[in-house]
Structure formats: structure tokens, C-alpha cells
Design brief:
By secondary structure, the protein is of the alpha/beta class. It has one domain: Spore Coat Polysaccharide Biosynthesis Protein SpsA, Chain A (Alpha-Beta Complex). Helix content is 43%, strand content 19%. It has 10 helices and 10 strands. It has helices at 13-25, 46-56, 71-81, 101-111, 142-155, 174-180, 194-204, 229-243, 247-257, 261-273, and strands spanning 3-9, 32-38, 60-64, 87-91, 95-96, 115-121, 160-162, 169-172, 208-216, 218-219. An 8-stranded mixed beta sheet has the order 3-2-1-4-8-6-9-7, sandwiched between helices. Strands 5-10 form a two-stranded antiparallel sheet. Helix 5 (142-155) packs across helix 10.
Length: 274
């Protein structure tokens, strides 16, 4: 089964270049095509860099918006671009994938048709963070990222249910995409809450949101939204709770139970002796 990998881009020239270099270098067996959407980045270096990447890599399309549309609108273009039966992978332009990342995430979906969204472990992914969840860590150096990913692939575990996926790197199954529909661009035009809303709707459609315990993707964090992020986060949280009043309670209960602790402990212990 093929996957459409969507990378929305707004400025962040250096981080986007690192993201695309990692995407091209990571070894995976899963066939995928890439859609890069440049949301009218003011940085004049972005457009030629994206065009050069597209020319150098097969199955890569770049779209350049003439005006800034906002993150959620761009993601919805990927929903519409996905072919029938094709899974959709949303990848932030400051994410750094590792060998086997997509194979492991797709394996979760292939193992259970009721899995709607899949998020990997990361240094900076709130409840999917490692080594300490809910706390961001700096991005490990490339060799260390690959060492962590190798340990995850070697030790293996079953998918862990989540109250919500984390949008920096989130696989949406074809079934989920068809059942749940588009992201809510009216309530979350700039991001901040859009993936949480989608995951709550996924759960309402009787599909699972899961953590892939066998994949690791680095995440730099905070590249595109660096001036008014606090206001955006506050507005997004208010709209999210207005739509899903139980959201905070569900996340708090998950954090209190910490179902991923045993998996994190295994990884930590294995890394200490590897």
C-alpha cells in the first residue's frame, strides 16, 4: 500500500532542508510519494530549494501558494490529493525521519484495520516523547537518532493507544481519512489543535489513535510559529475544548496512567547497554 507524505512549508529554510535531506536519506521499503506545499514563504531561498529537491527526487511534487493559506488549509489539500486507498502521512518541515520510520508506522495500520492514526516516538512530541514524555528534549545528533531507532526496531512492542496523535509526524490511514474527513480549517486555520480535533473525531468514528513503539522521528519544534504562538495555542485550546469538552480529562487520565512507561523503560535500559 502506498503512502502520500505531505510536508507543509513556511519559511524555516535550514530546518526544511534538513527535513528533506533526512526524508531522502532514510531507508524504507514502503513506496511513497511526496507532496511539498510552500505556503507563500517570504524567505526567497525556500522556493528554489524546494524546486531543486523536487527535480532531484522522483515522485515528489511541489506546490507554491500565491498567498498564505494557513497550515490546516494546506493539509486539507493533501487529503484531497491522496488517491483512493492511499494512506496519508503528515510531516512537519522540522521533523527528521530515520531508517525504517515509515515501514514501522505502516505496520501498525496493517496489523489492525481499526487503527486510524499513528504517531512515532520523538525527542519532542508531548505524550509521545522519549526519554521523558510531556517534556521536550533537544534533537539528538544523527548517529544517536539512528541508534535509538535501531533499538526500537530490534526490541519491538505492540501499538499503544493514545487519546490523541501528535501532528509533527502522523500517519492517517486511508480508512480513517475516508471516515473522518478533512481537518477543521474554520476553527483551526493556523494549526494548534487541528490534529487533536481530528483524533477526537477519529475516536468517535470507532477508530484508534496509537503510538508506534517501534519508530523514532526527531523533531526540532517551534520553527514556523515563533511570534504569536502563545496566542494561537490559547485560541486553539479554547476551540478544542468547545468542540470536545472531555479532551483535557482524557489526556490527563492517559498521562496519569502512562501506558508507554514500560516501553520507554525497555528502550532506556537497552540503550544503556547497547
Amino acid at each position: 500500500m502506498s503512502v502520500l507524505v505531505c510536508v507543509p512549508v513556511y519559511n524555516g529554510f535550514e530546518s526544511t532542508e534538513r527535513c528533506l535531506d533526512a526524508l531522502a536519506a532514510a531507508r524504507v521499503s514502503t513506496p511513497f510519494r511526496t507532496l511539498i506545499i510552500n505556503d507563500a514563504s517570504p524567505d526567497a531561498r525556500v522556493r528554489p530549494m524546494l524546486d531543486a529537491h523536487s527535480l532531484a527526487h522522483a515522485n515528489t511534487e511541489v506546490r507554491h501558494n500565491t498567498v498564505n493559506r494557513g497550515f490546516t488549509w494546506n493539509v486539507n489539500q493533501a487529503f484531497k490529493a491522496a488517491r483512493s486507498g492511499e494512506h496519508l502521512l503528515l510531516l512537519n518541515s522540522d521533523a527528521l525521519v530515520t531508517h525504517g520510520w515509515l515501514d514501522e508506522m505502516l505496520a501498525c495500520v496493517n496489523a489492525d484495520a481499526t487503527i486510524g492514526t499513528v504517531t512515532p516516538f520523538s525527542n519532542n512530541a508531548t505524550i509521545c516523547s522519549f526519554p521523558d514524555f510531556t517534556r521536550a528534549h533537544p534533537v539528538p545528533e544523527p548517529a544517536e537518532r539512528e541508534r535509538i531507532a535501531s533499538v526500537l526496531r530490534a526490541t519491538r512492542a505492540a501499538p499503544i493507544d493514545l487519546p490523541t496523535g501528535v501532528g509533527f509526524c502522523m500517519l492517517i490511514s486511508a480508512i480513517c481519512r475516508e471516515k473522518v474527513g478533512l481537518f477543521d480549517v474554520e476553527n483551526f486555520p493556523r494549526g494548534y489543535g487541528e490534529e487533536n480535533d481530528f483524533c477526537m473525531r477519529t475516536a468517535a468514528a470507532a477508530l484508534r489513535n496509537v503510538l508506534c513503539p517501534n519508530a523514532y522521528v526527531g523533531h526540532e519544534g517551534g520553527v514556523s510559529f515563533n511570534t504569536d504562538s502563545q496566542a494561537l495555542m490559547k485560541a486553539g485550546a479554547e476551540r478544542l475544548l468547545a468542540k470536545h469538552p472531555t479532551y483535557d480529562a482524557e489526556v490527563s487520565a492517559w498521562i496519569a496512567n502512562d501506558p508507554a512507561k514500560a516501553r520507554r523503560d525497555v528502550i532506556t535500559a537497552t540503550l544503556a547497554t547497547a
